[in-house]
Amino acid sequence: MTDKKLDFLWFIPTSGDGPYLGSSEGHRPPEPRYLRQVAQAADTLGYDGVLLPTGIFCEESFVTAANLAAHTEKLRFLVAIRPGTAAPAYYARLATGLDRVSDGRLLLNIVVGGNPNELAGDGIFQPHDERYDYAEEFFTVWEDLLAKGEAHLDGKYVKALNAKLPFRPVQAPRPPLYFGGSSDAAIEFAAGRVDKYLTWGEPPAQVAEKIDRVREAAARKGREVTFGIRLHFIVRETDEEAWQAADRLISRLTDDDIAKAQAWLNSQSDSVGQQRMTALHGGRRDRLEVSPNLWAGVGLVRGGAGTALVGSPETVAERIREYQDLGIDTIIGSGYPHLEEAYRVAELLFPVLKGKATDRHDVRFENIATRPATDSARPEFRTKLATAS
């Protein structure tokens, strides 16, 4: 058992939500009222923050976070910066503005991107590894602006001539930078630039190997990096109930649904992390428990983070502590649907995890308002895969 501090963030489903993967049954569109419900639940229950994903099928993360910040008190917001979708000076103004209006509650997630077709729509055409060269120049300008209020770079990819930033963020010299990427180029970029390296939920041995690579790369640059993991959660009072809930989550999927989703992911993505996720299950229902209590069913139809910890609070806490022993100090969790599962995880799992306060868990799950927004789901959100985050 470990006594190390653990930060636990939740997920804001800005591309939509529901009780079944790959199905429009019970779908909840990402309207502002519903997203506020999820954020306020996370704030009340003691989560340390929330992740807002990015992508063409997600509500814009900076705008959404600004809205949610006005309706929460302590919650921190992990918001994506996508180099190339806007100039570094503009992203510097966005980040500074959001950090100021949220009173220093901003975290920033660097998302270089793993879908060349989507990136082309944003005007980004560099091949995979070159995108990290671009990001290096981008963040040279961005960091100088936040730390010093001015920047000048006549680079190969980025030209910012005497850029100015008259306002300072609340957090000095800047909000913390998070990042996830599994390729060699991504790890070299992370080692020299970010504060926290994020991995998707791979088996502990694979996570350990990745952490070692990042640590070694950071040490070569004279830096230290901390680590987090992105996981879904299916927590119930018993292991049996949790596995039943996992089966229910994919109960509306046909084999054809899975085949189409896997073909789409394989054809669209050049992400090494996505390739590692897909390799865990190979699109097969009969090999979903890829490590004890680590279930890859989410990744059958969802891009990005595709694994869930499944079990009783005691079982899931034991699995979390295995990751903590590797160096993980931050969890970014989610569950379908995100409102109800935020309560389940907080009420069942938090008391078992040492160091999480329980005196704030005074709203029982059965008392929450669970009725989703009544607006009909937009077709594009019913049919497209969730963004990889």
From TrEMBL:
Enzyme Commission number(s): 1.14.14.5
Give the UniProt keywords, A-Z: Flavoprotein, FMN, Monooxygenase, Oxidoreductase
Among InterPro entries, the record links this protein to: Alkanesulphonate_mOase_FMN-dep, Luciferase-like_dom, Luciferase-like_sf, SsuD_RutA_monooxygenase
Recorded GO molecular functions are: monooxygenase activity
Luciferase-like domain segment(s): 7-329
Q: Its domain of life?
A: Bacteria
Keyword presence, Glycosyltransferase: no
Q: Which reaction does it catalyse?
A: an alkanesulfonate + FMNH2 + O2 = an aldehyde + FMN + sulfite + H2O + 2 H(+)
One family from Pfam that matches here is Bac_luciferase
The family assignment reads: Belongs to the SsuD family.
The entry's function note states: Catalyzes the desulfonation of aliphatic sulfonates.
**Protein's UniProt name:** Alkanesulfonate monooxygenase
Q: Organism source for this protein?
A: Pannonibacter tanglangensis
